[in-house]
Design brief:
Number of helices: 6
Radius of gyration: 15 Å
CATH class: Alpha Beta
Structural class: alpha/beta
Number of strands: 5
CATH topology: Rossmann fold
Shape: globular
Bound molecules: coenzyme A
CATH superfamily: HUPs
Strand content: 15-25%
Oligomer: single chain
Number of domains: 1
Strand order of the largest sheet: 3-2-1-4-5
Distance between the termini: 49 Å
Order of helices and strands: EHEHEHEHEHH
């Protein structure tokens, strides 16, 4: 039986830490859908379309990876794509409580899906999209953290 996993997130923007998680997931699951969330409580710097385009650019060449977007509940999207696994990245102990809460809620909403937690390589354990945006907006070098096209997009949007 083939297992499809979805990796949901805001990806505002996608970072090398996200890519690291996607690469790890491709070794474990047959198909990985990177699902960019339209409904998020966060005020994003990039539009949904821009976030999808950036993720597609970064991940486009990886076999078994699809980039898509979704609105509404992640569990409804998982159901619609027949995905049995939701992937989330755990960077530090501080991520755990919130992730545990989300995984439990998602299981309550759709019992047929399991949340799998993957940890990124150590050099990505402290980065987040908002930190990358902040560094870029103040003229710092974000090249170790994002793809070159994402770096350009950040420069143009935040430090143009
Ligand atoms: N590398 C780099 N950064 C990482 C990372 C990694 N491996 N793993 C997590 N992060 C960062 C993200 O960039 C993000 O940074 P930011 O806060 O600066 O933007 C942060 O860690 C994680 O944010 P979080 O809010 O936990 O997750 P998210 O933004 O990635 O995605 C959704 C949250 C979209 C999955 C969630 O809101 C959702 O499912 N929404 C749909 C509606 C729904 O179903 N709600 C009910 C859920 S129970």
């Amino acid at each position: 039986m083939k297992v499809t996993a979805i990796y949901p997130g805001t990806f505002d923007p996608i970072t090398n830490g996200h890519t690291d998680i996607v690469m790890r997931a491709t070794c474990l699951f047959d198909n990985v859908i990177v699902a960019v969330a339209g409904s998020t409580s966060k005020k994003t710097v990039f539009s949904l379309d821009e976030r999808v385009k950036m993720a597609s650019k970064v991940l486009g060449d990886i076999e078994n990876v699809e980039v898509s977007s979704f609105e509404g509940l992640v569990t409804d999207y998982a159901k619609s794509r027949d995905a049995g696994v939701i992937i989330r990245g755990l960077r530090a102990v501080s991520d755990f409580e919130y992730e545990f809460q989300m995984a439990s809620m998602n299981r309550q909403l759709y019992a047929k899906t399991e949340t799998a937690f993957l940890t990124p390589a150590e050099q990505f354990s402290y980065i987040s999209s908002s930190l990358v945006r902040e560094v870029a907006s103040l003229g710092g070098d974000v090249s170790p953290f994002v793809h070159k096209d994402v770096m350009q997009a950040l420069k143009k949007r935040l430090n143009g």
